[in-house]
Design a protein that fits this description.
Strand order of the largest sheet: 1-2
Radius of gyration: 23 Å
Distance between the termini: 71 Å
Mean pLDDT: 83
Shape: globular
Strand content: under 5%
């Protein structure tokens, strides 16, 4: 009976794979990437990832987007590079808000998991049954002991979002080329670039901007194969990710300019849906304006303005002849 059930299950799986080959390929690519990216079993303790990996937790647990409650944590040492004293008096993130917006759904799941294991610990303590201990006592997010949780979830968020970007990249390439070329190209993108060594290991801007660019590429490629409502939704989605690009990594503003020009030239009247999606830029713009004041530079660069002045002198993101010559 058991053997028959196994054969039946295998037959069902085979039938599903044959019926949904693209879904199976994507699932296989995603799981392979997750396995490889997590294989080193190491979490980053870099200060550059601190704000990106803590902000969502801060909102979900402390109901605030300011890091003012963490001043005591860093009272006896320098602030991480990812934190800045804003002109409005709050302690905030130096880096753009885009990565936090994109990975926020993951952090909702992470926070629900933490609340669950904390509740299980309290429940088992209440029952007080000898030898029975459920869950774990989760420290406050402002406690130094929480940093191990933060680092672990930061690595997991980076891995999952990067693996998703690889899948989306594969789907985009698959629209233009056969499966062999698509797999080879995707393998190179996933394991022979900074996608593996940087994006999948750290909650930085690199991986999230790759995810957004891959999503834009897929949407715009599919627009040419769609009509009516689906075409408009795809343009709206592409615009949404395009608007988030400068709010994720300021240098990506160059990509935004090229994508907007292409969309206006190619889609004509339908480009209005793309432009409506681009209003997502306001998420980063409002954030930067609230904390760092209103100007063209702060609208785009946010906390990078103060960070560059205090540490590097000439900003990497100042478009000037001197900067252009120095870059060579």
């Amino acid at each position: 009976m058991t053997i028959k059930m196994i054969k039946l299950d295998l037959a069902s799986v085979k039938k599903w794979v044959l019926k949904n080959p693209i879904t199976f390929e994507c699932l296989l690519i995603f799981l392979s990437c997750v396995f490889v990216y997590l294989a080193n079993d190491q979490s980053s303790a870099s200060g550059d990832t601190w704000s990106n990996s803590q902000l969502a937790f801060n909102w979900l647990f402390n109901n605030t987007l300011n890091f003012d409650d963490f001043r005591a944590v860093f009272s006896n040492r320098h602030l991480p590079h990812s934190l800045a004293e804003a002109p409005n008096g709050h302690l905030t993130s130096t880096y753009p808000i885009g990565p936090v917006i994109v990975t926020f759904p993951l952090y909702v799941i992470f926070s629900a998991y933490l609340r669950l294991i904390d509740w299980l610990h309290q429940f088992s303590s209440y029952l007080d049954i000898p030898g029975v201990s459920l869950g774990s006592d989760i420290p406050s997010i402002t406690d130094s002991e929480f940093q191990s949780y933060r680092a672990s979830f930061s690595k997991l968020a980076a891995t999952l979002s990067t693996s998703l970007s690889v899948v989306i990249f594969y789907l985009a390439v698959r629209l233009k080329f056969n499966i062999f070329i698509a797999l080879i190209t995707t393998f190179i993108f996933a394991f022979a670039t900074g996608t593996w060594t940087v994006s999948s290991q750290h909650m930085l801007q690199h991986g999230i901007s790759n995810l957004e660019l891959a999503s834009i590429m897929l949407c715009l490629l599919k627009v040419h194969r769609s009509e009516g409502k689906n075409r408009k939704i795809l343009l709206l989605t592409a615009g949404f990710f395009c608007g988030l690009l400068p709010a994720t990594r300021p240098p990506c503003l160059l990509f935004v300019m090229a994508i907007v020009f292409y969309s206006l030239f190619t889609y004509r009247r339908d480009a209005v849906f793309f432009l409506v999606g681009c209003l997502s830029f306001l998420l980063g713009g409002i954030w930067n304006t609230y904390y760092f004041g209103f100007s063209f530079k702060t609208l785009i660069y946010g906390g990078y303005i103060n960070h560059a002045k205090g540490n590097f002198g000439l900003s990497s993101y100042i478009f000037s002849l001197d900067q252009f010559l120095k870059s060579f």
